[in-house]
Amino acid sequence: MKLVKLIKLNNLQYNANRDPAFYRRPVNEEFRLQAMLNGSGEAKAMFTVEGETLCESTVHLPGTFDCKFSYETPGTRIGVLTIDGANEQFRENVRIDVLDHAPVG
User: Fold this and answer.
1) pTM (two decimals)
2) Which of 7, 86, 99, 101 would staple 39 via disulfide (CB 3.0–4.6 Å)?
3) Is the peptide bond prior to 20 cis by the omega test (within 30 degrees of 0)?
C-alpha cells in the first residue's frame, strides 16, 4: 500500500502533466495543497517553496496533510512536498503559478 494516495491542489487532483492554468491563482488568493495519506502510525509532512517552509505537520495515519498559503507577488514557483512515514519517503515537485490579476472573462 502506498503512503500517498492522492495529492490535490486547489481541490483538483494534482497532475504535473495537466495544463497548469487549472491550478493558477491571482496574487493574494489562497492556494490549498492537500495530501491524502494511507497507512498506520504517524507521518511527517512538509511543503517548502524556494527554501521557505510554508507548512509542516505530523499527520496521524490514515489522514490528510492540509496546507494553505498565498503570495503577494506574481510568478512561477516550484514547491516540494515531502512526506516521511510508514517506512516510506515521498517527494513531489509542485508547480505554483501566481498571476498578476484574476483572468478576465
Assistant:
1) 0.94
2) 86
3) no
